[in-house]
């Protein structure tokens, strides 16, 4: 029987040029390991772990079975005034791998929800401590913190905020940490810790006592992998402490072994007060996110409310969804049993060797990378973003999926990728990026 052509009129695709997509659809119909297949059966190597979610590769049977069993056991339970045992189990497991001291966990369904939740927790904490005037946030140019209104306010990528300025809240920005002199730096740049002094400057301008929290991605992922200069995060920590400002690490991409350790906080030796995570929390299988906070932050909020009412007037219908909890526990088991974070760390050298072998190609302006995440900055095209979009489509035609943001590609394969698979992915990059204009 002939298959009906797919009607694509009704699904409005996110972060997509829908007209271009309809003209040139890029569809995934099946996935296993580090491979996707199109509906026609063409193989596409996954050079982006989906969207930095599938750290353990696609189609993990352990997760599928845990989800199936949980759906039959307890498919849904509300978490307002009720709870399911599995969410406490997950929170305890997470606190075992989180940076020491961060052991209270609030669940949501997406990275964007985690970010907005973290903002509200910061405000609630300061109010509980008698500092309700701390209502301003600091973030960084080129930062990405999801697309809800809090995260849009924190955004440092102009395209993501320009059209929504009427609904954004009070956020001031530090400079990003990339400079042209640091092109082709592998790992952390030596110079640039001083850029953290932007926080000190903002405290002078606005009053440190008005600032609730500073949000940064330890490695700025979505913009194209900007690795923090040596000492930068430490300096940010010291300035935040000096002014009583909470330090929030958005680890939605960097969590779960992407940098080598469980979290980038541990890899870079800086403990934030609040940490957001999502994506690889469930290996991408079921939407889920979490915000981890220091014990004393939750304690302060809980202790500040004497009446019989929720201490934090915040939560989602799908907070701690039992099926998502089951997927997360199964993912954490894989990470532990397969020693996946150590595997990613061990693979990093071969991965970065492969990335940096692209250095002299016609379309490459800069290369950056750390652990199992890298950024390939393309030489600029006629208008910003045009080249990135074109190259991403060419790579798809040649059999490789990577993420493109503006004119940067983000190449971050699963932690289970073999050296041969990294080689095959890099060969496709070499073929496409080596072409002239
Ligand atoms: N924060 C960071 C650092 C991210 O990279 C992302 C997504 O890429 C988000 C937040 C938003 O996550 P989600 O798309 O799940 O809402």
TrEMBL record:
Q: Tell me, what's a Pfam family for it?
A: Aminotran_3
**Keyword Transferase assigned:** yes
Question: Which Gene3D superfamilies did the record assign?
Answer: Aspartate Aminotransferase, domain 1, Type I PLP-dependent aspartate aminotransferase-like (Major domain)
Cofactors: pyridoxal 5'-phosphate
Q: SUPFAM superfamilies annotated for this entry?
A: PLP-dependent transferases
Key word Transferase present in the record?
Answer: yes
Question: What protein family does this chain belong to?
Answer: Belongs to the class-III pyridoxal-phosphate-dependent aminotransferase family.
Listed name of the protein: Omega amino acid--pyruvate aminotransferase
To which species is this protein native? Bosea vaviloviae
